[in-house]
Amino acid sequence: MEQPAAHTIMVISDIHGNRTAFSAVQKRLSRDHGDLLLIAGDIAPRYSEGLVGDLNALSDRITAVHGNCDTHYDQQLLRFPLPVYQRISFSGRTIFLTHGDQIRPSHPPLLSPGDIFISGHTHTPSLYLQETSGIFMLNPGSVTSPRGGGAASYAVITASGIEIRELYRARRISSITFDVLQ
Predict the structure, then answer these.
(1) Terminal CA-CA length for the chain
(2) What predicted TM-score, i.e. pTM, was given to this entire model?
(3) Cβ(133)–Cβ(154) under 8 Å?
(4) Domain tally, the chain
(5) Which CATH number does the domain housing residue 161 bear?
(6) 175: which strand partners?
(7) What angle, 0 to 180 degrees and rounded to 10, lies between the N-to-C axes of helices 19-31 and 49-57?
(8) pLDDT digits (tens, 9 = 90+) for 117-127
(9) For residue 138, how far is the Cα from the chain centroid?
């Protein structure tokens, strides 16, 4: 799925059935002018009938993957697939989206320098350039239950770089620009 360079991608993970957190995501998606929402697993919509409706209302803008807490029943409730991984083309880069429990950041698939590997699972936001491969490694953290004392978080990808932000205050946690490879 190729997205024009001017568009914005929002990345979240680990909703765990929390409709209140997803409502905050929807507000940020609108404020950040997000065109596509990537979900790195652990959606678990079975815990909230309202969440199922919210997710399905955005199904044409969602690309998601299966997390270790997602079930076949969850997949039946949703109008978008939940494979183990997805590859998305964006602004000349490949984005590899997975939950991180089966395909781990320590052993990413073959990607090219400048591509982006996204995983969730740890509930801890992380963003860095893997120097040996030139791959950008992103974990947006969790929108519901962050670990390590941090805030609920999400990430934004634009043609110029990646930024991780706090969900409720939109304060920047970390960022990196793509020109670091030049």
Answers:
(1) 26
(2) 0.94
(3) no
(4) 1
(5) 3.60.21.10
(6) 163
(7) 20
(8) 999 999 999 99
(9) 8
